[in-house]
């Protein structure tokens, strides 16, 4: 069965709105794990707008599943990852003004820069995925660079406003996932997945893991974190088991 890694960034977003101590992303992560999350993801952004260095250090100590650190491929972030030693790193592009990660890494045009980060992390025994758009070119470049795997950006699929566009984007994601697995890469997906759109993506058998944050944390305001996590896991599992 595919794994669900719950991104708890937006618990910290609420806390940072008042620069206080609650709600606590660490408490949220532990609740998510208890409800069946297979991993916890956080994005330590250069501007520290939500997750703080201290959150990451505590999460490293208490997360019992797998801690996935999303980060830019900068020297500062690589140094932090080498100290904290998350179970895996997902390298993402980062722009200061964006609301959230807007596109996948341009691996081809930043090859040496990204390769340097991948090599430093892998040499320290930390597996690295690259967050990329669903294109054959980006998958091949990720393979060439020596990453362990990829996380496919599902944002364009998730944002599609009609069925035709959605079908085109789904095919793009699926084709890239097939190629990724053929090249022996770990193949994950994430961004913009919610309770309405996750089923078709979860049905893509090539995906081993999904990183989902905003929709789960938003739903948890009404239902609490355990039910929000359980419901997402159920949808993912049903999508796989419903297939012939
Ligand atoms: N994967 C990556 C690489 C991301 O940057 C994000 C957003 O932080 C996510 C997954 C989770 O996206 P969402 O919050 O839309 O579920």
Structural class: alpha/beta
**Beta-strand segment tally:** 8
Domain unit count = 1
> What is the highest CATH level, the class?
Alpha Beta
Q: Considering the protein shown, what is the CATH homologous superfamily?
A: Aldolase class I
Bound molecules: pyridoxine-5'-phosphate
Sheet-strand content, in percent, reads 15-25%
Contiguous uncertain segments of 5+ residues: none
**What is the second-level CATH architecture?**
Alpha-Beta Barrel
Termini, distance in Å?
A: 15 Å
Tell the overall outline.
Answer: globular
CATH topology: TIM Barrel
Reported for the largest beta sheet, the result is:
8 strands, parallel, barrel
Q: Report mean pLDDT, rounded to a whole number.
A: 96
Structure description:
It contains 11 helices and 8 strands. It is an alpha/beta fold and 244 residues long. The protein has one domain: Aldolase class I (TIM Barrel, Alpha-Beta Barrel). Helix 2 packs parallel to helix 3, helix 6 runs parallel beside helix 8 and helix 10 crosses helix 11. The site of pyridoxine-5'-phosphate has 19 residues, from strand 8 and helix 10.
